[in-house]
## 1
Amino acid sequence: MPDEQMAGTGSAPAAPGTAPGAPAVPPVAPRPLDPIDRSIMRLLQADGRASIRSVAEQVHVSRANAYARINRLIDDGVIRGFTARVNHERAGQGASAYITLKIVQNSWRTVREQLRELPGAAHIALVSGDFDVLLLVHTPDNRTLRELVLTRLQAIPEVLSTRTLLVFEETDLLDAGPGPADGPAIAEE
């Protein structure tokens, strides 16, 4: 891999002794981040494919320093991995919804594992308030969304009730910075 390419462009490795999908180990105290670390994170959120040279130039440090900082952020679990931001409509997933679930008390881990298996599940969160779980799904159309809710979700014994909130329009805040029309967020090489 050329030194210009980002190290560790795959997912961050699981903690030692844990299997993929296993519950996370108790959190470690967060490492204090300085302004350069925060700038590096913002740049990589905008373009996870940015080269080390480009990141270094943008934050005004040497390539070696940028490389070491990025690897430290990965090793410390601050950066969990690199991913593509997908336009779900263009990818054939034109119906999106947030679904709230009320679940049987103490069934979170069981329900979470079943929700992970749902086609189109994009985000799952245990939350406080009037419901217990917030689920974001993307499906090809409303018919598929209806089937997912009525057939798959409501068939989970620990799910007591659901409420579906259709997404009419989304704004990705990571896209709020300079875009293609305004010039690249990180200079191309």
## 2
Amino acid sequence: MPTLERAVPVCRHLARLWMDSEDITDESARSAALLVISELMTNAIVHTNSVSITGRLRKAGDWLLVEVQDEGGATSVPHPHRTDYANEYGRGLVLIAQSVQALGTRLETDGGRTFWARIPLTG
């Protein structure tokens, strides 16, 4: 994994390349996917003890599935909540929830956690 300062922009760049290769041209879906990747990768870097964080994108019919898996170690599970918009932090999951069809998390057998989002590929 690149140094932490560069991990998120590198992931966004790789996501753009993958979406190009899959001919995903819908700007709404592309923007939502990049937001999800950015926010979930940032949360994993900031809020877990992970050495390795994995991002995955996959097309499934009319859906784009985005997942970010960390190694766990968070003291709490992040969830969307209202926050004062004057605050610099705390709005990421709210923004994601407003941009995707579905959002969730699952605990992995190795103690890690996967956050996922389902984004419609058509209107």
